[in-house]
Specification:
By secondary structure, the protein is mainly α. The protein has a domain at about 55-170. It has 7 helices and no strands. It has helices spanning about 45-50, 55-60, 70-80, 80-85, 90-120, 130-150, 160-170. Residues about 30-35 and about 45-50 have low confidence and may be disordered.
Length: about 170
């Protein structure tokens, strides 16, 4: 049973003010009830990292934002927060690696494959679009969108080649 921080009289757990003297009571931070309980019974990550303000799910989602998610990927991989968290850290780092590798695949298609397919003998490079380059870019965009949906539904989905590379990268850093 808690007591008033000023006069010492008994107070309720949720009382914000003392019923006897009216002093404001310190209220302990309540765990975030929207997060599912952790399987190992570890404390809520918001209590362990009170100044970060981002959940592991949101960090994973940010890694799949088309064309800009690589920034979140680099931040997730560079910070210590998800390296220390042994339960949710590997999952978030997996999504960071997978999102980063997906962005690299986009760059390879956009900068190397698509320009190579446009080259013809008769016309300049920028006038002849090739449908294969556009289809590959559309496929990568669809993978980004699909991963946003999968992460938002708390599903662990591994993309075919990129997912294997991401898992290998996470396992090498343990």
């Amino acid at each position: 049973m808690p007591y008033c921080c000023q006069c010492g009289s008994p107070a309720g757990d949720a009382d914000r003010y003392c019923a006897k003297c009216g002093a404001q009571q310190p209220v302990a931070a309540q765990p975030n009830q929207s997060q599912p309980p952790r399987p190992d019974g570890a404390p809520n990550p918001y209590q362990a990292y009170p100044n970060t303000g981002i959940s592991p799910k949101n960090a994973s989602l940010l890694c799949y934002i088309p064309w800009f998610g690589w920034i979140a990927c680099v931040l997730v991989l560079a910070t210590d927060r998800f390296k220390r968290d042994k339960v949710e850290g590997p999952e978030v780092r997996f999504h960071a690696f997978q999102g980063l590798f997906l962005f690299v695949a986009w760059l390879i298609v956009d900068w190397i494959i698509a320009p190579m397919l446009r080259v013809t003998r008769d016309m300049p490079v920028h006038f002849v679009p090739h449908p294969v380059g556009g289809l590959l870019q559309l496929l990568i965009l669809a993978a980004w969108i699909m991963m946003i949906v999968k992460v938002s539904q708390n599903e662990h989905y591994r993309l075919p080649i990129i997912g294997q590379m991401a898992e290998r990268s996470v396992n090498e850093q343990r």
